[in-house]
Amino acid sequence: MFENGALGIVFGLLSLWRTDWADPLAPGQATPGLAYSIGQTFENGQEISQEFRLSYFTPRTIGPVQVMWDASLTSRGGVFVGGGGRMEQDFQVGPVPAYVGLSALVGLWNPSNDVDLGFPIEFRTDLEIGVELSDTARISLVSDHRSHARLSKLFGGDNFRNRGMESIALRYTQRF
Questions:
Q1: What global pTM score does this model have?
Q2: Sign of the dihedral defined by the CA atoms of residues 25, 137, 169, 83, in that order
Q3: Domain residue limits at 95
């Protein structure tokens, strides 16, 4: 599991590397899709709750990054809603088409009875690895980290501790 924002840095560096510098924010097209994830959340290595997540990968790209929207609900009532971008790279494992993906999101976290992360604005970074079942269906394992990156300190909040939580989930993606 990833317990810090290192994936966000990797995402940023990879997007810079994949950028066409002649027109870095060039709009483009990608295959849209809807992803359903179910998994477990953790804080400090301890299981906290189960989570259902719905992600929409839009047909729009900005430079090398596909725009996405995301929402999740935990079994303890925690809700995350946000948006951001994703990138993926296809590869082969023998005869099996596979892929690895990274995403970076910013959104709002309402903990309800779940983990109070110390600030309502949270950053969520994902690492996903999966296989293609068909031209339109994929299955993957996704791990993420979310935290406020010490925003509470910037905005004068009382909670300077950057509590974070992680999740690991099974994801089914239907592309269209």
A1: 0.89
A2: positive
A3: 6-175
